[in-house]
Design brief:
The complex is a heterodimer. Helices cover 36% and strands 11% of the residues of chain A. Chain A has helices at residues 3-9, 15-24, 36-45, 80-89, 100-105, 135-150; strands at 29-33, 68-72, 95-99, 126-128. The chains are: A alpha/beta, B alpha/beta.
Chain lengths: 163, 171
C-alpha cells in the first residue's frame, strides 16, 4: 500500500477516547415524562432543536435498551419506587439527566407527596433548570453530559477503583 | 321540583334529620345528621336529583361546624338544571357514613378518594381501598392536623448508588 494512503486511512487513538467518543455521540435516551417537562421534551426532539444532531434521537421506552434516563417532571411518593426500578433495569453504562425544577428539587411542590429532588435516591449527572426548561436548555444539558462522558476513564467502571 | 319546595318537603318528612338549611350564591345547602343521610339522599334522588356531580369532604377543624368533618354531596337535576348541596356531618371519633354507591355509581371512586384523603369510612362500599396514595400509606393527608410536609414518607426510599468511582464535577 502506498504510504500516503496509510496516512489518510489510519487513525491512532486510545481505546478509552474511542469508546467515550462512541458513547457520547450515540445516547439512547429513555424519557421518564411525568409532567409538562415531558411535553417540552417532545419539542426538544422536534425539528427546531432536533436532538438527532447530537446522536440522541433513538428514544427508547424500554429501560433495557437505553443508557440515558431523562427524568422530566415531578416524582410523587407513589412514582419513586417505579423510577428506582426503571433506573436499576438500565444496563451500564448509564447516565441521568434531571430535567426541570421539579425533578431537580421538587419545584413549587413542597408537599408531603412530592420527592424533593430525585438525586436523593438515584445518581444524577446533569441538572437542567427551568420550569419547564426551554429546548435549548435541554440541548445544553445534553452537551454538558457529552463533555462529562468524554472525560470518563475506563477504570471508573472497574470494581477495583471503587475503594 | 324546585329546591325551595323540596327542602320544605324534606323538613316536614325528616324533621330530626335536618340540622340547618342555608343558602349561598342562590343555591340551597342542606345540613344533615350523618345517620339520616341515606334516607335524605334517596328521597332527593326520587325527587329528580338524578346526578351526583361531586362528592367531597371538608375538615372543619379550624372552621367550626356541627362536627369535625362535613361530607358534601353536590346534586344536579338534569331535567330542570337545578343544583342542591347536601352536607353530612361526621365526628372525628366515629367517621363513618353509609355509602351512596347504591344510588349513584359515580360515588364509588369519589368515596374512595374521600376515604384516602380524610379517612372517612363509607359502610357497605364495594371496595373501600386507597385510590391515589400507596396502599401501605399511613395517615390521611388532607386532614388539617396532618403536617404539610408529611411524616418523612417522601424521604423514606432506598438510595441507589452507581457502584463506580465518583466523577469529578464539571467546571
Amino acid at each position: 500500500m502506498n504510504p500516503t494512503e496509510i496516512k489518510s486511512n489510519i487513525l491512532t487513538t486510545t481505546l478509552e477516547s474511542a469508546i467515550n467518543w462512541g458513547r457520547k455521540n450515540s445516547f439512547w435516551p429513555m424519557p421518564f415524562g411525568t409532567a409538562c417537562c415531558g411535553i417540552e421534551f417532545m419539542a426538544v426532539l422536534a425539528a427546531r432543536t432536533d436532538l438527532a444532531r447530537f446522536g440522541a434521537e433513538a428514544i427508547r421506552f424500554s429501560p433495557r435498551q437505553s443508557d440515558l434516563l431523562i427524568v422530566a417532571g415531578r416524582i410523587s411518593i407513589k412514582m419513586m419506587p417505579v423510577l428506582i426500578r426503571i433506573y436499576e433495569q438500565m444496563p451500564e453504562p448509564k447516565w441521568v439527566i434531571s430535567m426541570g425544577a421539579c425533578a431537580s428539587s421538587g419545584g413549587v411542590f413542597d408537599t408531603y407527596s412530592v420527592i424533593q429532588g430525585v438525586d436523593q435516591f438515584i445518581p444524577v449527572d446533569v441538572y437542567v433548570p427551568g420550569c419547564p426548561p426551554r429546548p435549548e436548555g435541554v440541548v445544553e444539558g445534553l452537551m454538558k453530559l457529552q463533555d462529562l462522558v468524554g472525560e470518563e476513564k475506563l477504570s471508573d467502571y472497574s470494581p477495583a477503583s471503587d475503594k | 321540583m324546585s329546591p325551595a319546595t323540596i327542602t320544605s318537603q324534606l323538613k316536614e318528612k325528616f324533621p330530626e334529620a335536618i340540622l340547618d338549611i342555608t343558602e349561598f350564591a342562590d343555591e340551597k345547602i342542606l345540613h344533615i345528621k350523618s345517620q339520616h343521610i341515606l334516607l335524605v339522599l334517596t328521597a332527593l334522588k326520587s325527587a329528580g336529583y338524578n346526578f351526583l356531580a361531586d362528592l367531597t369532604a371538608i375538615d372543619n377543624l379550624t372552621l367550626g361546624g356541627f362536627e369535625r368533618f362535613a361530607v358534601s354531596y353536590h346534586l344536579l337535576c338534569h331535567e330542570t338544571a337545578e343544583r342542591l348541596t347536601v352536607k353530612a356531618y361526621v365526628s372525628e371519633e366515629k367517621p363513618t357514613l353509609p355509602s351512596v354507591e347504591s344510588l349513584w355509581k359515580t360515588a364509588d371512586w369519589q368515596e374512595r378518594e374521600v376515604f384516602d384523603l380524610y379517612g372517612i369510612i363509607f359502610e357497605e362500599h364495594p371496595n373501600l381501598t386507597r385510590i391515589m396514595n400507596p396502599d401501605d400509606y399511613e395517615g390521611y393527608p388532607l386532614r388539617k392536623d396532618y403536617p404539610r410536609l408529611g411524616r418523612k414518607e417522601r424521604d423514606d426510599f432506598p438510595v441507589v448508588n452507581r457502584g463506580i468511582r465518583k466523577k469529578k464535577p464539571l467546571e
